[in-house]
Amino acid sequence: MTRFNYLSLIAISAISIAVSTPACGIEGQPTMGVTPPVDYLQKSRPTISLEGDFLWWTATMTGLNYAQKEEAIKPIVSDPSTQQLILVGKKTEELNWKWKPGFRLALGVNSNHDGWDGFVSWTYYYGKARSEHRAAPNQFPFQQLPPNPVGTETFTSSWFIENRIHQYNKITASNNLHINIVDLSQGRNFWISPKLSLRPFIGSRLFFSKTAFYVKGMQEGSPNVGASFASADAKQSIWSAGLLTGLNTEWKLIWGISLFGDFSFALTYGKNDLSLKRTLRLYDFAANLQESARGVIKETLYQLFPFADLGLGLRWSHLFDHTLRLSLDAAWESHVILEYNQLFKGTSHREDITSFPSQRGNLSMTGLVIRGKVEF
Fold this sequence. Notes:
mainly beta; ten-stranded antiparallel beta barrel; 1 helix; disordered N terminus
């Protein structure tokens, strides 16, 4: 037999032994495996976990600039005797969002099937914003002579009827936001090193929300200017469902303290009901009603809502005789929902030609999370 035949026989024998040898080591004695599941309690039955979170968040919604502050200036014209002034934009007014509480509740089961787990969680958050601005009442109508003094400030709003024709010296806006998110996920928490564990997961997300946006303008009456009032009430209601995926990581440090980071992405599809109610009332110098107008616009959209969720924090955990595990977390979370704001407003002061495009604004929520979790 040649040397080549000997080498071929040895190689074939080695491959046969490698294929027939159990991957877990010696047959009948399972090893930890490549990615052993995280099992602190080491019970023969599934592990139950209960979680409660306190949220202290603030929200921001783009596309909700509710007024424009304008200033009277004298135009540069060839005729110096011209007394008519023009209004130019000075500042766009935005809502002032407040910090508000919320909560999250979760229930989980860690099975004995390779460490697979299932979780259901409910997150609720109520966001609120309010702003108010005021200027001195106009001495004269801007469309007539004699003119107001140069530098006179006033407000207009594209949310109102005839939004560029009428000016207001006081304007207020508020927004109330109700967010409900229900996540159902299945994952596996496993070790990839003695101090680092990962939990990839997939699942579904249910998303329900309501937004109520209100703007009110008032022009105080004077001997030369009649009072006027305008309001806009915009509402949005969303029901949607879709897919969810993400990754949880935990990095063990010392004394039961670990650093953790979470990421998830979701796409939900559903119904978005929109409405815009507007009113306008104009009075003369004697406080007699001269003009009253009211309009209601409704629309229903079906759209995708993309979500991105990030979290980073510290965790302290303690194991009680392998029967109970307690964890306390302090984290910072940030969430964004793209094109959440579909509220619409007018584009022209002429109601016969104006259009009402959606704002296509994003909703972001961020803040502190304090979490308690018990496993048994």
